[in-house]
Amino acid sequence: MKFLTLSGLTKQDKFNITQILVILPFVLLCIPTSFNRRAEYHSDTIPNPMNLLWAIIPFAVVYALRVIFVENLFPKFGDKFIYYKPGWGPGVRKFRVKRFALVLFKGIYFWISAPLGILLFKHEDWMPKGLFGVGKQDLELLWDGYPFQEQSPMLFVYYCWELGYHTHSLVFHMQSEKRNDYFENLLHHLATIFLIVLSYCNNCLRIGALVLVLHDIVDAIMYLSKSVNDMPNQVPVYCGFFFIAYSFLRFRLITLGFDIIPAAINARNYIPEGATGQYVHWLLVGLLCVLWVLHAYWFYLIIEIIHNAIKNKGKLQDPHAVG
């Protein structure tokens, strides 16, 4: 990535950078307290932060698969799949083929990860109906017995799986060329990783799993829709944008904003009196709010794309794509 100067940054870039700079000191302040939580409570039910090192395995697997498929196999398929549009030069089509390979890889990943998360936790009584829960669907049970909750082994496995993937995404993002959504996605990657690590250390795995499942559902729909963006037949593209808009509204705005964030705020009633670093709870709530604001902004962009398509008689244009 080329060296960035302030003059080359948009107002949105500066806003996102400011958020990152505001969040980082609070995260650094919360890390010692969070990593010491197990010793503070003298309980084996509090997760051991060192167990997150197992995330190295899914990180390495996903990283290797991305190199194999995105840089070698999928571009060959995309070269046959992506047709030339009028006015495209060789550089534009090469970019679109590369982009197709990436979104196809991510689409396949999320179509594995999202159903996996639903299947693992749909019978848990704290899984809400909005995320396909079939148990009691009682969000109060997210904090039942907190902080001394015994978590299922699958929550630990799922956390390492997700941390490995999101760390791989951050590494690739840091190596990528700066685009118009670079700092938005950087903020999103950092907020997600901070949430995973801090929620794990503070035994907030249940609500953390809800946030991760929610994101994976939307990403599965979004990347599948993006993979057909350059098809000659635009009907799948129109359908894709409709489902992206619907999934963003239902899951990332309504479910996150009106179910999960209020449930996260409710944790304050279960934190033991005298516990150190109670500000960690408010940092976690703040990070969830940062994600919600990003999602609201992206939803606005989606609606803008659909509005422009109607105005331009059906021509859809992804603002994050070239050509």
Automatic annotation (TrEMBL):
It is a multi-pass membrane protein. GO terms for cellular component: membrane. GO terms for molecular function: sphingosine N-acyltransferase activity. Pfam families: TRAM_LAG1_CLN8. It is found in: Membrane. One of its GO terms (biological process) is ceramide biosynthetic process. It comes from the Eukaryota. Residues 95-311 form the TLC domain. The chain crosses the membrane at residues 15-31, 52-69, 100-121, 237-261, 281-303. The keyword Protease does not apply. The keyword Transmembrane applies. Keywords: Membrane, Transmembrane, Transmembrane helix. PROSITE patterns: TLC. Signal peptide: none annotated. InterPro entries: Lag1/Lac1-like (IPR016439), TLC-dom (IPR006634). This is Protein ASC1, putative.
